[in-house]
Amino acid sequence: MKILVINGPNINMLGIREPEIYGSKGYDALQKTVLEEAASLGISADIVQSNIEGEIAGHIQKALGAYDGIVINPAAYTHYSIAILDALKAVNLPAVEVHISNIHAREDFRAKSVTAAGCTGLISGFGPDGYRLALRALYGFLKKQEG
Question: Catalytic: which of 67, 77, 99, 131?
Fold first, then answer.
């Protein structure tokens, strides 16, 4: 089983950007968390990050035929990117949207996820551990589909 983990804008700034919301651990620690969880599940995971909406849509498109599912943190694009939503719908791969912070406990505009409509599920508010939860949820979903 092969999973693509896509991180959107400013996720590479973890540990620097608003540590009271996103924590003090950097992006390298997040990547380590993802790879450790994937290994514990016996699956492989590739991780990409982009601050550019079109690149994120491109990563989603390239996942078709190459990956079994996607874990995505669209970050700020969550709230308005029809392009990312359309890419998720186009490839129609099982996907879990993940957010480090609880998007429903922040500013009103952050409570709406446009991109979640193209995902199997959404995990929000558990810090970097949300990625572990997303991988586990996606793994379980894919196993059930297998049969």
Answer: 99
